[in-house]
Amino acid sequence: MGIWFGSPAVADIAALSAGTLSEHIGIEFTHLGEETITASMPVDPRTVQPAGVLHGGASVVLAETLASVGGHLTVDPERFQVFGQEINANHVRPGLPGQTVHGTAAPLAIGRRSQVWEVKIVNDDGKLVCVSRCTLAVVPLDRSDRP
């Protein structure tokens, strides 16, 4: 399937999130395309700021989650890990309580040592809420401490 290592499925991705921040704030992976990964997140008490709208940090969590999981799915997990190095986000409009936001990540560059992903987050009406770019480091696993 496209850029992915092996044949991952949405159910496999959900298992990666068990017990993590992603699970705690309600991120659900919904689609794995040829070169994209999509997830949704509710705008509810877990993800809003005191003003009652989607917290920008929650949008960044969704964006980095999508980029990191996307990056993870492009490498051999027996040989490499990926880690976020840098992320930026432009918040375009508020996510409103009771809505769900939907993020889609696509790679801009996939290299041997780094990857760059773009994430667009939209509301239920398809209007842009946030756009983010995330750079990931691709790090070889240290095999010296393994049996």
TrEMBL record:
Is the keyword Oxidoreductase assigned to this protein? no
A GO molecular function held by the record: 1,4-dihydroxy-2-naphthoyl-CoA thioesterase activity
Where in this chain does the record put each Thioesterase domain?
52-130
Keywords in alphabetical order? Hydrolase
Checking InterPro entries in the record gives: HotDog_dom_sf, PAAI_dom, Thioestr_dom
User: Where does the UniProt annotation place the signal sequence?
Assistant: none
Gene Ontology CC entries for this record: cytosol
One family name in Pfam for this protein: 4HBT
Family annotation (NCBIfam families): unchar_dom_1
> What protein family does this chain belong to?
Belongs to the thioesterase PaaI family.
**What's the protein here called?**
1,4-dihydroxy-2-naphthoyl-CoA hydrolase
